[in-house]
Design a protein that fits this description.
The chain has 109 residues and is mainly alpha-helical. The chain has a domain at 18-92: Alpha-Beta Complex (Ferredoxin Thioredoxin Reductase). The chain has helices at residues 2-16, 24-41, 68-75, 86-90, and strands at 18-20, 83-85. Strands 1-2 form a two-stranded antiparallel ribbon. The longest helix is centred in the N-terminal third of the chain and has 18 residues, at 24-41. The protein is globular.
């Protein structure tokens, strides 16, 4: 299953012109979170956010989330730190914590 996740995130990065998190330990943690969420929910729910467990309600935070492009453009990395801009990766930038762009009303009560 981890090979499927690795293939998925690499294809997502390539398709969007992004780089992957360079820290192997951190990358492994995010991959494990994606595997757990795939096994639990049946889809790649962002492991860094609380979801509903409902594919329709969570569609905006299905990896790569709807906010990733704006996050990467503005901050150099997505909310999870899984994906980075190629420029940030080339500069050796370490992903930083960034504000969550997901509106509060999209979170479970």
């Amino acid at each position: 299953m981890i090979n499927d996740i690795e293939d998925f995130i690499q294809k997502s990065a390539d398709k969007n012109g992004w780089a992957l998190q360079p820290d192997e330990t951190f990358l492994k943690t995010v991959k494990e979170g994606l595997v757990k969420n795939l096994e639990t929910y049946g889809y790649y729910l962002c492991p860094c956010r609380e979801g509903w467990g409902n594919r329709f309600k969570d569609r905006d935070i299905t990896c790569p989330c709807d906010y990733a492009e704006a996050d990467i453009k503005e901050s150099g990395n997505c909310y999870c730190g899984l994906f980075l801009s190629k420029e940030a990766a080339a500069a050796g930038k370490t992903p930083q914590a960034i504000p969550d762009l997901r509106p509060d009303e999209k979170y479970p009560d």
